[in-house]
Amino acid sequence: MSVHDSELEQGVDAGPDPELADLLTDIGGWIDRDVTDANVPWDFAAVVRRAHTLDPEQFPASVVQEVETAEPVVSLAQQRRARRATRDDLAFAAIVADVRADAELDTALRANGVASPASPAVAVARPASGLRRLAWGALALAAAVVLGVGVIEGVQFVQAQRAAQADAAMHQGDRNGASTERAVVDDTPAPQPRVRAAAPIERAAPEPEVLPPAPLDPPAAATAKPRRASKPAAVVAPPEPSLSERLAALDEAAHAAWKAGDLAAAEAKFEALIDLAGTSRLADLAYGDLFTLARRRGDSDREAALWRAYLERFAHGRFADDARAGLCRRASGEAQRSCWREYLEDMPQGSYRDRALRELGESP
Amino acid sequence: MDRPLASLTDPSEVTPLPRVNTEPRVQPLRRAPATDVDLLVEAARTGRTDAWAQLYQLYFESVFRHVRYLAGEQAAVEDLVQETFARALVSLRDFDNRSAFSTWLHGIAVNVVRNHWRSQSSTALAHDRLRAMNTVREAAPSADVDRNHLARERARVVYALLAELPEHLREAFVLRDLEGLPPAEAAAQLGISPGNLAVRATRARQRLRGELEKLGWLAPLPEEGAS
After folding, report:
1. Fewer beta carbons under 10 A from the terminal one: N or C of chain A?
2. Is the Cβ pair B89, A23 closer than 8 Å?
3. Which distant-in-sequence residues (6+ apart) come within 8 Å of B185 by Cβ?
4. CATH 1.25.40.10 segments of chain A
5. Which letter does DSSP use for residue A278 in this model?
6. What is the tens place of the pLDDT at every residue in A198-241?
């Protein structure tokens, strides 16, 4: 500090002024809240476009294009929220997929006369790691019984009974322990084999192997082993990816395509994700990406269509505020006034409240 | 910049950029991890737009807040922030490391907003001032006015009054008294000494107080020596 500055500084302290300090603190607090609520769109591409205008030599059009096709820069907080949301969504989707798989399998088993895999005995035998495992455990159990019966080669069963035996075993629903389970053949010829629970087996069959812990994926043994040794082995189908895995893959592929500059592919992947993810938050987030992509392309009609589709699915979603305001901005005349009026009614504290009031000729 | 930026899109030419593991900072001036930011600045100097993108990500919020304080109105802030970053982009080669990058960047924001103030028509300012005066008459006597609304009206009045001050006093006051920057930081952004800043801020404060008293927002200070 120079001497002059020191002299200047002397006497600059006008003494405490708590009243003014309070007023300024109040204003500062309001501005900070205003900043926090501003919900300002980040647009790094716009910055680079402006830099290109200021100095086209240093920032040629190719750089602008590069940035425009790159993923948008978002706040770190938003990035974290999105990551957290994605993780939550994937976890939730996994649970939903498990429940759905369980329900479907249960339905299929019931349709074939196999009891629901809910017996305590089975519950002990199976690994306690989820409904899907339980379901696959039940399938494995049924398959093991089939296998057990199937390997009774040389036993003098009537040829005509064999199919019925197998079917009956297939439908064996008793869950009194895999190791003691016996398949039973109903003596009475019937159009459809029936299950007789806990009935003694007519012929001793080899003990089915004790079930190993059910695998996470569909049990290959249950699907691959032939019912008869002489029959060719069935083709082992690769396990279907779960819903959560498919969603994660689509999300990853969409962002990879975006990074690679293939915006059309990215858009297609996000759309596929939305179709699959229903009304989950992952779909909500994917819409945000689609909005950005449409805006990047300058396709305002597409953007408006996306807003409408979004609002139909997410009337109170995280982008509902922007979508509503966007549609209002696009409207004209009385339709626009009506739109803003409805916006204010539905979102009295919305981010575009001031704009809405201005459009309606009211003071913000 | 020695080479065109477009050539840098070839991955073989670029060294992977270290990721910055910092939180978004409302007050980056105090907590900036210098080493990471320095690396980013150096990379940005060589034309790495991804480095610039990260700097934008790191400083957007603090620059936005800074500009919001300086401009006093929300409407123009978005454009002013964009202009700040664009100007920083094209002039990064002039950044000489004598100050922290954040100080330099926020200093650019001061210049951008200064130009914005200058471009405002005097008519518009007079209108704001008149509006502020009317607001006083409406808002001041009411004790049950919503606190948030009151703060907004106070801000409108203060900024209308600030518009009447010389820009060197206004800027010092905003940075020091409203935004609450440390004296050294505020002075560095304005390119003046801390002592000079203190003088300017005090003068601005005195003038502002006088106007607020006239408008009835503040009670007059007691006379010196009065008990």
Report:
1. C
2. no
3. B29, B103
4. 63-75+242-359
5. T
6. 333 334 444 444 344 433 443 333 344 444 444 445 566 667 77
